[in-house]
């Protein structure tokens, strides 16, 4: 496999991660809502991409995608790259946005977001 094929294969599977959960149009609408630095609002984003109306099982699948290191938690470094899970070309969250998202989701104060906390955050 040459580098072009690898690149295409990687990004095709990357885009397929949310297949069956979110549409391309939903993802585009969510990303459109927060293109500028410091414009990310998790409640708006979750509504725009349609996550707030997804089932518990679908949210668990999304959580697993966001939990890049498979630690069963979404940590601050993973939150910084949150938008890039939805599109490789999306921007990283600013430090302020990352900390705000973590604070909103970390209800037990351990500095990371578990699956139950993530579901509560999306539905809030």
Q: Topology of this protein?
A:
Blueprint: H1 3-16, H2 24-32, H3 42-49, H4 56-66, H5 76-80, H6 95-105, H7 115-123
Helix pairs in contact: 2-3, 4-7
What can you see in these coordinates?
With 124 residues, the protein is mostly helical. It has one domain (3-123): Recoverin, domain 1. The chain is 54% helix and 0% strand. It has seven helices and no strands. The protein is globular, with a radius of gyration of 14 Å.
Number of strands: 0
| CATH class (first level) name | Mainly Alpha
Q: Which blocks of ≥5 consecutive residues have pLDDT under 50?
A: 1-14
SSE ordering: HHHHHHH
DSSP helical segment count: 7
What overall geometry do the principal axes of the alpha carbons give?
globular
Task: Explain briefly what this protein structure is.
54% of the residues lie in helices and 0% in strands. It is mostly helical and 124 residues long. The chain has one domain: Recoverin, domain 1 (Orthogonal Bundle), CATH 1.10.238.10.
